[in-house]
Write a structure and sequence with these properties.
single chain, 6-stranded antiparallel sheet, 6-stranded mixed sheet, alpha+beta, disordered N terminus, 32 strands, about 15% helix
Length: about 600
């Protein structure tokens, strides 16, 4: 394979110690011989085309919906064999679909049949959640999927003449869609419609609803059990953002050509290295799902490669009049300062070629330092409040808006553990938020301002935090850090915000917080969540939200959480979001500076 041959250079950035060779490859796809269970529809057994015929049926087919009738796309049947999970859908006449592999699983967009709204917690070891509704089906996997890695898809016809769609998932599977279905694969997912979004955020049932955010239920593990981050490049200065343009040192060499890129896969990140001849100029242009590198003073043949890694869908060389344009198609969105980073590394001894090292990962956030003028939140006008004799006199008094900021955990409760300790990071961010809001005229109150818990009994502690939103308080926001089990660690990165239906404005508040934190940090946007009844939100009587600012278990996101520049940006985004909520009326008592609702 192209990728393995490139990685086998053992050079990548040609750094001392050959860092690439020291990194385990979490996406290695070399499946051992497998025995596949039969999937039966009626009396006919269906096996995946191209798979070895089973000698015995070792998997157990779970009970599922019967064949859909009258244009219904119903819940599938599922079976498992070791770490592999097989999912079988019955296809009614006229139904069409597309397949979109993502970092979090496989998405099906269905037309020609009504998708039965269903939520199931697990279908097998490689499908940890099934969600359907609004014309869409999502099969969540504990590992990222590439266009051909981690899954297989095929169709078959049973003895009755009915069609079935057979999906297989496993960490060592490869192949993707069969030749007949390849045209149905989308490289990137379209934004969900409102109906799809509602289906995907539907509650999973009271039996599974928990009192805590998902990350709080992950058992602590040694740091050594988590995927290791990629080694830093020599001379890397975290205080300096990636240069968007530059030039390799030395005099230009007429006729110099660009060799194919060297690639290295690290957990959660892919590193692409371009060897630049002396005098080669470069300009980096991030846009949408791709990064274009415009090179001058060098030539190259038109080359390309597909399915490079979960983070890099493809790369391409396009010769132009004065050089070469290199395009890297990423699996996640890129902004000017997030989703990627780049550094020009000097030549190694004996070589005259500088190395432009480009890291790509959707978990790479904007770590550019804020200047003093950016660390300011615009003033928030006072709130009008009525009470006591003022009520009898039909007059109002003005007072500072009051918000409660809750740094999750504390004291004997450390929270998520990984690259950082959750209780320390949440407090560090909350103190920053408090200072920004107080300077803007907001009475910002913390549930804790030191390393302590409110009560040694967890449930009581959570209720006490929520109850600090006393009458006269406009908003409540809890700050947390997320985590996943080591086996799933590469799936979890980015920012998400939770809300519960404790107040009509809670969902709007959550949306404002999510938008502002993602905007300030460039972090991956995981969106809004509401499918758990969280005690700290449920027990609040004012608009309330809980923001998860990153994953301590992820090798890239964990480094974000260790970076003061990132924490500054998180705090600024939270403070700006709270200000926006207050002045726009998304608060108990109405808009700051305006009349009560």
């Amino acid at each position: 394979m192209l990728l393995s041959s490139l990685v086998s250079y053992g050079l990548l950035c040609a750094l001392p110690g050959t860092w690439a060779s020291a990194q385990a490859d979490p996406f290695q796809r070399g499946a051992p011989p497998q025995v596949f269970p039969s999937v039966r529809a009626g009396t006919a057994a269906v096996t995946v085309p191209g798979a070895a015929a089973p000698t015995s049926q070792t998997g157990t087919v779970s009970a599922g919906a019967s064949t859909p009738v009258g244009g219904v796309f119903a819940a599938p049947r599922a079976s498992s064999d070791g770490s592999q999970t097989r999912v079988v859908f019955d296809l009614t006449p006229g139904v069409t679909y597309t397949l979109t592999p993502t970092f979090g699983g496989l998405r099906l967009d269905v037309k020609g049949a009504r998708v039965v709204p269903t939520v199931r917690n697990t279908l097998g070891p490689s499908v940890t959640e099934y969600r359907a509704g609004g014309g869409q089906v999502t099969l969540v996997t504990p590992f990222p999927l590439g266009l051909t890695e981690g899954w297989r898809a095929s169709e078959a016809t049973v003895a009755s003449g009915a069609r079935v769609l057979i999906l297989e998932f496993g960490p060592t599977l490869a192949g993707g869609a069969s030749a007949a279905l390849r045209g149905l694969v989308r490289p990137t997912a379209l934004p969900p419609t409102p109906d799809e979004r509602q289906a995907l955020s539907a509650p999973i049932g009271t039996a599974l609803a928990q009192q805590l955010p998902p990350g709080d239920t992950v058992a602590p593990v040694p740091r050594s059990a988590l995927p290791a981050p990629a080694p830093a490049l020599p001379g890397h200065d975290p205080e300096k953002p990636s240069a968007l343009s530059g030039r390799a040192p030395g005099n230009p060499q007429p006729g110099a050509s660009l060799v194919p890129p060297r690639l290295g896969k690290n957990p959660g990140m892919t590193r692409v290295v371009l060897d630049l001849p002396p005098g080669t100029g470069y300009r980096l242009v991030p846009a949408g799902l791709g990064l274009r590198i415009e090179l001058t003073g060098v030539s190259a043949a038109p080359l390309s490669a597909q399915n490079v890694s979960p983070e890099v869908r493809s790369w391409r060389y396009d010769p132009v009049t004065d050089g070469v344009n290199v395009t890297l198609n990423a699996a996640g969105p890129l902004t000017e300062r997030s989703g990627w980073r780049a550094q020009l590394v000097p030549p190694t001894p004996g070589s005259d070629r500088s190395r432009l090292a480009i890291d790509l990962s959707p978990a790479l956030a904007n770590l550019t330092p804020l200047n003093p003028r950016e660390k300011v939140v615009a003033a928030v006008p006072p709130m009008r409040s009525l009470g006591g004799t003022a009520l009898l006199a039909l007059s109002a008094t003005l007072s500072q808006p009051r918000v409660v900021i809750d740094p999750g955990h504390g004291g004997r409760d450390p929270g998520a553990q990984g690259s950082i300790s959750e209780k320390q990071v949440t407090l560090a961010v909350a103190l920053r938020v408090r200072d920004l809001l107080r300077a803007a005229g907001v009475d910002a109150v913390l549930t804790r301002d030191t390393d302590r818990e409110l009560n040694p009994v967890k449930n009581t502690d959570l209720v006490m935090r929520a109850q600090m939103g006393t009458p006269g308080t406009q908003l409540f926001l809890s700050i947390h850090v997320n985590s996943m089990e080591p086996v799933n660690a590469l799936r979890g990165y980015g920012v998400e915000t939770w809300w519960n239906p404790n107040h009509p404005l809670s969902s709007t508040l959550a949306g404002i917080i999510e938008k502002n934190v993602v905007g300030a940090t460039g972090a991956y946007d995981r969106g809004l969540r509401s499918n758990r009844s969280l005690a700290v939100l449920r027990n609040s009587r004012i608009p309330a939200a809980l923001v998860e600012i990153g994953y301590t278990s992820h090798p890239v996101d964990g480094l974000n959480l260790k970076d003061d520049n990132y924490l500054d940006r998180v705090a600024l985004g939270i403070a700006q979001g709270i200000r926006e909520a207050l002045v726009s009326g998304v608060a108990a008592g109405g808009a700051a500076g305006g009349a009560e609702n």
